[in-house]
Amino acid sequence: MSGDAVEVVARLKEESEVPLRSHGSLSMNRALMAAGLVDRVQVTIFPVITGRTGTDPIFGGAADFDLELIGSRTLDGRTQELVYRPTVHT
């Protein structure tokens, strides 16, 4: 699809009963969150220590959101998958 991602996703959410997923662009995901179009945020935690790397925050510069944990599971005895419902922090 082409066009503004926020407008396209808003239209798709209205037209489709199938849940939408985004695994792509951080800037697009930030814009979708800011527009209130994200129903769930899935975070996968890989247990490593990145002392010299990993210095850039994923959502640096984004709005503040409160996250309500709505699901979790352990994938391989160490990797955690956490699912949150985001709401704009007021």
CATH architecture grouping: 3-Layer(aba) Sandwich
Mind telling me the CATH class? Answer: Alpha Beta
Low-confidence stretches: none
If you average the pLDDT, what whole number results?
86
Pfam family, one: RibD_C
Organism: Blastococcus brunescens
InterPro entries: DHFR-like_dom_sf, RibDG_C
Protein name: Dihydrofolate reductase family protein
Explain this structure to me?
The chain has helices at residues 5-15, 26-34, and strands spanning 41-45, 65-74, 80-88. It is α+β, with helices and mostly antiparallel strands and 90 residues long. The chain has one domain (5-88): 3-Layer(aba) Sandwich (Dihydrofolate Reductase, subunit A). The chain has a 3-stranded antiparallel beta sheet with strand order 1-3-2, with no helix packed on it. Strand 2 and strand 3 (80-88) form a beta hairpin. The longest helix is centred in the first third of the chain and has 11 residues, at 5-15. The relative contact order is 0.20. Residues 4-78 form the Bacterial bifunctional deaminase-reductase C-terminal domain. InterPro entries: DHFR-like_dom_sf, RibDG_C. This is Dihydrofolate reductase family protein.
